[in-house]
Amino acid sequence: MDRTEITAYLRQLPDLIEEALRGLSNDKLRRRPSPDEWSALEICCHLRDYAQEEGVRVRRLVEEDGPTLETYDQEAWARDRNYHGDDPARVRTALRAFWGGLAYQLEGLSDEQWERSGTHPEIGPVTVRSRTERQVAHAQAHLDQLRAIPDQT
Asked: Whole-prediction pTM value?
């Protein structure tokens, strides 16, 4: 994907999520496929927080010289931020804000900024470009999970 395709996909993601969730009841949104898997709502909360964190990471890569990016514990965030108890409408609004904001942030970068680099402790060397490619792949994987939910029993 080129830059334009990446930012277009990130901007479109909230609509794709809405489409995947269309028709799901509140109970279905909160139902976990198994005790160790997230519900649709928890996946959406994760995607919200992921987009927010990626915005911070991109900003650091652009503004700092060779930063070491922060990691986070997604399971702790899910627990501490009460993903399971969150309000679905509020989460959907935040998904639009954070993914749209991330796309906006990326659209404003120069070619040079797109190649700015740093280090992710778990991945190693990264650039803004490699982070955005990872954002797309990560979002697509979770979108596939959401699309599969209506087929789950």
From this structure: 0.94
Instruction: With beta carbons less than 8 A apart as the criterion, state whether 86 and 40 touch.
Output: no
The pLDDT score that the predictor gives to residue 149 is: 84
Contacts of 143 (CB under 8 A, 6+ apart): 13, 16, 17, 20
Structural domains of the chain, ranges and CATH numbers in brackets? 3-151 (1.20.120.450)
SS3 call for 23: coil
Number of C-beta neighbours around residue 118 at 10 A: 19
What is the Cα–Cα distance from 60 to 128, expressed in whole angstroms? 10
- Contact between 96 and 14 under an 8 Å Cβ cutoff? The reply is yes
Tens-place pLDDT, residues 111-140: 999 999 999 999 999 999 999 999 999 999
Q: What is the DSSP string of 101-134?
A: HHHHHHHT--HHHHT-EEEETTTEEEEHHHHHHH
Euclidean distance between CA atoms 118 and 57, whole angstroms: 9
Do 52 and 105 form a contact (C-beta atoms < 8 A)? no
